[in-house]
Write a structure and sequence with these properties.
Largest sheet of chain A: 5 strands, mixed
Strand content of chain A: 15-25%
Helix content of chain B: 40-55%
Strand content of chain B: 5-15%
Oligomer: heterodimer
Number of strands of chain A: 20
Mean pLDDT of chain B: 86
Number of helices of chain B: 7
Largest interface: A-B, 63 and 48 residues
Shape of chain A: globular
Structural class of chain B: alpha+beta
Mean pLDDT of chain A: 93
Structural class of chain A: alpha/beta
Helix content of chain A: 25-40%
Number of helices of chain A: 23
Radius of gyration of chain B: 18 Å
Strand order of the largest sheet of chain B: 2-1-3-4
Low-confidence stretches of chain A: none
């Protein structure tokens, strides 16, 4: 037996996605199988392509094995590691061409990206600070402490024109400068990792895969504005991110990058983790700081002092998103001009999106600002999954909007997206196909905001609830003439009259779907049908008598006994009993295809 | 009950800003927030009981009644929603015979919905005691719960 090549390293993703696809068991099996070989098995954070997980990457070749099971381990060891023959059947299969691609650098999903803030995600071990140091980690902090004044750091940030990655896009340099100049005894640095937008998971992945980059950015912020204490406000729903952060903080203190008298320069900076308790509105800066203070997280009404002047515990506070902090060491190391060269005139650098929904390649991606939606969805994403037709892309979560096919050439940057009626938000990008009902999607988002409204201002608390009722009526076939105009009128009033960003953006999903998909609303209201076959009250299940072979499966599985029919006799659905659960369609064998779903209600 | 949280209190100073971490630790211990414990926290932090309750009731993480031994969370994120989360929720409710927000009478399972667990690339997904189950179809649900050792008679209604 030839000894396994010693220089090889196996990277096994241990992000939340791959862990849920059972990657820890893989790791154990691989460790067992290669025990005597001296081969390196390295756990890493998220590679961003969770859909293909659990994944194993063999370096230095860069062979990417997708959806690896325990049963595949002997093949990887015997064929690839012992005999240098990669296991072709485990290569990623391109959903468009059907071609098997061995190297990740050749896969369109990776090839078309430019990964900078995600550069370490999937390549370093997040639980080992040595890995981060080996790729130049904490060099930026050293440089800042030894060679730069706070004013120079701010100048660098201003030259880079880095805008906040939390969604609003405020210039980070200006924010830090305001905090630095604000008078105050104690100052604070707060990292907003309260990633509550459904459909977004980049902050979680970054914290899980490269926690030190965020800590380094925070320490630089502390030095720049004169803060000794930092907080990371992270969702309690992200247990793995919390545990990786704890390890990272401990190791950073041990190595002298956090704590008292950092690197002997007399600067002290401590970081504590604060776990959110499940309130979406706490993503808003004033609500978030109130929450850390142990209060109900209700945004403070305007006019109010800025957080940079009077934030946490009424002290000057810099509050930035996870990615914003992670960009800072990059800008210090590679130069502000390098960063400012990427992107558009007003949106510099790269943007991270969570590409999900009905797209062939789901995952976390990074592209230069200004890339078009089409390049992202059809290039990196490989288009719509399952050969269906593209309908819309939802960007920016509950605050964002749905953009139709005609706007696919819109560049993704803060301003262009706002203009189109969506927003950058936290970067969730959910692809919707022809089987998605736009009224249902609008209702879904409004349902979310109604739940999450803190309740202190009337437009948001009462207004969104009324809009939700109208949408509910429309989906149930009780829509009335004039409902659409009423929704627009109410939506605009809520945007104008709410205290905080949650209320001001809550109507966006409704307003944008009306703007671009008004015909779907009209089909629901005027014709009592749901063209996408989603709204239960507006569809009908029928059995095609010609195709039905009387196998009896649907009759057996119908939970309400609505299907009747004898042996060798086509079955019939009793429409008065049918609850439109869709079980009959699901169980009818594909070779018969006798159960059909129709738009509209049968009389 | 009161003395049980003594160990938790001992590592805190009693500052008002510690309220949320304290509530989280108490819930971690008991699975919910017993009234006696909340009263004790109020004294400890020198806050009115009403303020403790006001904070606890604001955040969706906190519960005021005991929950099942197994926590089932059904993700309602956008990606999950468009890929069939409503059907998954229906099926879980059918299998366990309870609605979201409820606990089975034998205290085996509690079911809750959650806005997003951030596993969108594996949609639709649920978590059981923090373990994620992804790429589900409603047909998978019965299998998941029968493996966990529930009484399987619930689904044989007819």
């Amino acid at each position: 037996m030839t000894p396994i090549e010693k220089t090889r390293t196996l990277l096994i993703c241990q992000g939340t996605g791959c862990v849920s696809s059972k990657s820890p068991a893989l790791r154990t099996a691989l460790e067992e199988g290669t025990k005597q070989s001296g081969i390196r098995i390295k756990l890493t954070g998220c590679h961003g392509f969770c859909q293909q997980g659990p994944m194993v990457i063999v370096e230095p070749e860069g062979i990417f094995y997708a959806q690896v099971g325990i049963e595949d381990i002997p093949d990887i060891i015997n064929s690839h590691l012992l005999n240098d023959i990669p296991v072709e059947r485990l290569f990623y299969k391109d959903p468009i061409t059907g071609e098997r691609i061995p190297h990740y650098r050749d896969m369109p999903f990776y090839k078309l990206q430019q990964r900078f803030v995600l550069r370490n995600c999937g390549t370093i071990n997040p639980e080992d600070i040595g890995d981060y140091l080996a790729v130049g980690g904490y060099e930026a902090l050293k440089r800042v402490l030894f060679q730069m004044t706070p004013a120079q750091v701010i100048e660098d940030l201003n030259t880079s024109a880095l805008r906040g990655r939390g969604g609003a896009g405020f210039l980070a340099g200006r924010k830090w400068e305001a905090c630095r100049k604000a008078p105050g005894e104690e100052k604070y640095v707060v990292c907003n990792a309260d990633e509550g937008d459904p459909g977004a998971f980049m902050d979680r992945s970054l914290l899980e895969a490269d926690p030190h980059a965020v800590l380094e950015g925070m320490a630089i912020a502390g030095y720049t504005v004169g803060a000794k204490q930092g907080y990371i406000y992270v969702r309690a729903e992200y247990p793995l991110a919390v545990s990786r952060l704890k390890i990272a903080i401990e190791q950073a203190i041990e190595k002298g990058f956090l704590g008292d008298n950092i690197l002997g320069k007399g600067f002290s900076f401590h970081v504590d983790i604060f776990q959110g308790a499940g309130a979406f509105v706490c993503g808003e800066s004033t609500a978030l700081t109130l929450s850390i203070e142990g209060k109900r997280g209700m945004p403070k009404p305007s006019p109010r002092p800025r957080t940079t002047e009077k934030g946490l515990f009424d002290q000057p506070t810099v509050l930035n998103n996870v990615k914003t902090f992670a960009f800072v060491p990059l800008i210090i190391n590679r130069g502000a001009d390098w960063f400012a060269k990427m992107g558009t005139e007003k949106s510099k650098g790269t943007a991270v999106f969570a590409l999900t929904g009905k797209v062939a390649n789901c995952g976390l991606i990074e592209v230069p600002m200004g890339a078009t939606l089409r390049e992202i969805i059809f290039g990196i994403g490989g288009g719509v999954a399952g050969g269906k037709k593209f309908k819309a892309v939802q960007i920016g979560g509950p605050s964002g909007g749905c953009l139709p096919e005609s706007l696919l050439d819109t560049p993704v940057d803060y301003d262009s997206l706002n203009e189109a009626g969506a927003m950058m938000g936290s970067g969730g990008m959910v692809i919707l196909d022809e089987s998605t009902c736009m009224v249902d999607v609008a209702k879904y988002f409004l349902d979310f905001t109604v739940d999450e409204s803190c309740g202190q201002c009337i437009p948001c608390r009462v207004g969104t609830e009324q809009m939700l009722k109208i949408l509910g009526d429309i989906c149930q076939g009780r829509g009335r003439e004039g409902d659409i105009d009423l929704l627009v009128e109410m939506g605009e009033a809520i945007v104008a009259g709410s205290i905080c960003g949650l209320g001001q953006s809550a109507p966006n999903p409704v307003l944008s779907t009306i703007r671009y998909f008004r015909d779907e609303y009209e089909a629901h209201i005027k014709e009592h049908r749901c063209p996408a076959l989603v709204c239960k009250e507006l569809i009908t299940y029928q059995i095609d008598g010609e195709k039905c072979k009387a196998c009896g499966l649907c009759k057996k599985d119908c939970p309400v006994g609505a299907i009747s029919g004898a042996k060798k006799e086509p079955h019939i659905i009793d429409q008065s009993k049918c609850t439109k659960c869709g079980v009959c369609l699901e169980v009818c064998p594909d070779r018969f295809g006798a159960v059909i779903c129709l738009s509209g209600v049968s009389k | 009950m009161g003395e049980d949280i003594g160990a938790i209190l001992s590592s805190h100073k009693g500052k008002a800003a510690e309220l949320i971490p304290l509530l989280q630790r108490v819930q971690g211990e008991f699975g919910y927030l017993p009234e006696a414990a909340m009263r004790r926290l109020a004294k400890f932090t020198r806050l009115p009981v009403s303020r403790v309750y006001a904070v606890a009731s604001f955040y969706s993480q906190f519960r005021f009644a005991p929950t099942g031994r197994n926590q089932v969370m059904i993700c309602q994120g956008t990606a999950c929603h468009v890929l069939g989360a409503p059907r998954i929720l229906e099926e879980v409710q059918k299998q366990l015979g309870i609605k979201a927000g409820e606990t089975t009478p034998d205290l085996e399972y509690s079911v809750e919905t959650v806005a997003c667990i951030g596993c969108c690339a594996l949609a639709p997904c649920i978590t059981i005691n923090q373990e994620v189950h992804g790429r589900l179809s409603s047909k998978d649900i019965a299998g998941i719960f029968s493996k966990k050792g529930t009484k399987g008679e619930t689904d044989d209604a007819n």
